[in-house]
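Weekly modeling sync, notes
Attendees: S.R. (lead), two postdocs, one rotation student

Agenda item 3: backlog of single-chain predictions. S.R. asked that every request posted to the team notebook include the full sequence so nobody has to chase files. The rotation student volunteered to paste the first one in as an example of the format we agreed on. Action items at the bottom.

Example entry:
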Amino acid sequence: MGQKKREIYGTNRNPGFSPVRDISFRQALLGSYTLQWMIISAEALLTRYRGGPEPQSLFRRKAAAYLALNRHLQNFSREKITDQFVNGIVMAIITESRIAAPEVANIHLRAWEAVLKTGGGLKQVIAASPQPFDQMGCLMPYLICEPLPDALVFSEEFEDRAMDLLRTIVKGENPADPTDLIFTASHVVVQPHVLFLSMRGSLPQQIRHLLLSSVIAPYLRVDTWGQRQYAQKSSHFISLFLLVTTFWKLRRDYKAQAGFFNGLHRLFMNSATQTQSGTRSMTDEGFFWVVVKACFDVYVNMSDRATRLKEYIDFLADALSALKLFRVCCDGVRKDMTVYLYQCLTGGNEAPD
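Predicted structure, as returned to the notebook:
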């Protein structure tokens, strides 16, 4: 399992932050649903690593896990929404996205969305949690679950609309809860570089230089797009989104922006695997979690708990809204949105190769 984890995230054996160690294991200790699906994931990935047919024990585990979730969903109401149950569905989505066809994971995804809707939306569910700051795993469903073809809303013909929505979300100006977002294709008249120009005046050149020249620079560039799987593309997109939106929110405080970059760099260096050539590396999904943790540290270090909680919930909601938008775009629009975010950070006038 350790070998497979490194292939997924590319981190070293004791990273500064590990989504498995710091999120999944903690949730597994608190709820049987998460534990069941983690065991299923471990057995399935180990079987795939070794080769050979799936053992009967795996089918039995999955049957028991499905039965447990379905039993809890019977006569479902808001009172039945718990961290343990929501996190269990999230782990089911993660597991099925990695070991089964997209159709299977999307069934769990729809159940997760329905549960959040019953709870009044993502923001209310997180706010009502006894441990709200432990709910970063909610970012995974839209990131890892590959959408089905019928999810497409924005073809290249409607890229202008998708880009306008992206600018609204990245600036924190989307008031809707992610569960309430319903996208429709239409043409709008927009100024395509409004945020780009604003970021040029709000992100100091020193930080731009660090972004372009430091060890994290390769994880920002948009290249080899066509060769990537969905989760790699979504991880790249949302990593850039989180960097842009956090730098944007800190635009009036250069010291805070510098502190954010330093925290990001430190987490990367403490988490990456050192290659034989001496360089540091990790996967796109691994870098995504480094960015998430760096952003998390910014928001939870604010003055009082009420402010911290609001900023943290908005951070999660904006990220999920962006990922939900990414899901309903064609691949060409997804790439263009990712390139746009890269340009916001680097100040480049042309898209990278």
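Discussion: group reviewed the output briefly. The first strand starts at residue 273 and ends at 274.
Action items: rotation student to repeat for the remaining queue; S.R. to check formatting next week.
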